[in-house]
Amino acid sequence: MLDYYKEDGHKDWVHKETGASVLKAQHPEFELYSQGIHAKSGVACVDCHMPYQRVGAMKITNHHVQSPLLNVSKSCQTCHNIPENDLRARVEGIQDKHMQLRNVAFDAVVDYISDLKEFKDVDLAKTPNPKLSEAREYQKQAQFLFDFVEAENSTGFHAPQEAARLLGLSIDKARKGQKLVAELRGQQTQSSDAKKEIKVEENKVETKPPAKK
Ligand code: HEC
Ligand code: HEC
Q: Domain of 155?
């Protein structure tokens, strides 16, 4: 998925605070749902979302999709011979776990972005720095993976395992990026140390009393 966007050279906007180009995820319901158990079992969107008025294929971009939990008996119990409260509890259990991991990923991405802000004024076109361009790429990926899951409105229910995989990858990209930031900071102190040394040398020359003969 990311590879596709990458090959395409696709970028939606440039992050103001870090200079990284980032992607925006749009309508990922279908992509995520298709990785879940219901899609694998041939259950369609309409089976859960519009069981009362079967209107052929539901438009994926329909923003007025109702929560099936408003009518569990019609949305779920047609297939699941499980009491309504148990079904709700299963959905909530999936969604709770999803939110825990989602919050961890959110913190990881936000922390990483705030780390990268330090380097926002570096124009890679003028001063190329492979580490920094890689670090910005990690931001793009971490953010995209997170947004992709976040933009999906079922709070993990459509495909819990796939959502967790993507959030895990997002955390991994942020972590790898942070490692690079640590290295970039190392580069900075090294070069400013080098500058300091030069200054010290210059000072030495200036303050040195004329050599006695
Ligand atoms: C097995 C049943 C099921 C199937 C199939 C299913 N969904 Fe869902 N969907 C849910 C549940 C459960 C929620 C979470 C509702 C909640 O949290 O109140 C949800 C939430 C949503 C939401 C957010 C709705 C809201 O009120 O916030 C959208 C949009 C959505 N689904 C779209 C789709 C699309 C598009 C498909 C097919 C590609 C699909 N769903 C397939 C069960 C299903
Ligand atoms: C058209 C039939 C159908 C409908 C409607 C349906 N399901 Fe399912 N559901 C299935 C099938 C088939 C499976 C897979 C069972 C299996 O392979 O063990 C499944 C699996 C599940 C699982 C287990 C998921 C897992 O990963 O183990 C849960 C939870 C679930 N459904 C909840 C719901 C809820 C909540 C609704 C209503 C919003 C719903 N289902 C609507 C057919 C349906």
A: 12-200
Residue 47 is assigned to a structural domain of this protein: yes
Establish whether residue 90 lines the binding site of ligand 1, counting it when its CB lies within 6 angstroms of any ligand atom: no
Assess if residue 43 is contained within a domain.
yes
Whose tokens are 């776990």? That residue is 97
| Residue 126 forms part of a structural domain | yes
Cβ 8 vs Cβ 21: under 8 Å? no
pTM value surpassing 0.90 = no
Note whether residue 136 is domain-resident: yes
**How many domains does the structure of the chain reveal?**
1
Ligand number nearest to the C-alpha of 41: 2
Cα gap 203→85, rounded to integer Å:
78
In angstroms, what is the span from residue 20 Cα to ligand 1's centroid? Answer: 32
Indicate which CATH number applies to the domain containing 126: 1.20.140.10
Read off the pLDDT of residues 113-171 as tens digits, 9 standing for 90 and up: 999 999 999 999 999 999 999 999 999 999 999 999 999 889 999 999 999 999 999 99
> Which two structure tokens, joined as six digits, stand for 188?
């900075």
Whole-number Å distance between alpha carbons of 3 and 115 = 25
Ligand 1 center–CA 172 separation, angstroms? 28
CA of 72, nearest ligand number? 2
